[in-house]
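Reopening: Amylopullulanase X25 domain-containing protein still failing for me.
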Amino acid sequence: MNPQNNQDNTTGRLKTVLEVLAEQPGAVVSGQQVLTVAVVRVPLSEWESEPLSGGVSRGIKRLSAATAKLVKDGLIVKGRGGWAITAEGARVAAAPSAVAVAGDFGQLLGGKTWDPAAPEVQMAYSPVSQQWELTVELPAGFFLYKVALNRSWAENYGAFGVRDGANHELRHDGGVVTFRYDHASHDVAVSALDKALV
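Support: Ran it again with your exact input. Result attached.
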């Protein structure tokens, strides 16, 4: 059996629920309509399509139950009239699912050069700084890079946070360097660990 046919995509559909509600800010939308659109955008796997008691598919049941977490986390509100997104939910919906610092140093990190999907250049979100961060070790050199969202070049930011802008430049003496991406400004801050401190 193809492992993708046995896949659980509930987490991806929860993000889609937020996106669907964020597309209609301030509106109250039927919960059934939201779930239907979420399944259209993130189709059910073979395993999720299997009907359970009552004839409802496993994927729909899992998604419906999982939306309780969105309510608990203060991201959506459910009422008799339907569902609505909160301000925090809209902020989460707008956030990228992945941020990469892709450039000509990708191969030095074990990935591919200028590959926004390479695991080696994916940044991690820090709830403390509320920024995306990646700390790596690079040799001395001059490097070019951009920030790419959601593992593709469809949305990318260059110097000064300009969409599709000029490449960022990094002149590096060698050693550990941390990239920090601020999604509000779309810009990157870079800090290097002083070799003398190592």
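Residues 99-197 form a domain with the Immunoglobulin-like fold (CATH 2.60.40.10). If you still see a failure, please send the error message rather than a screenshot.
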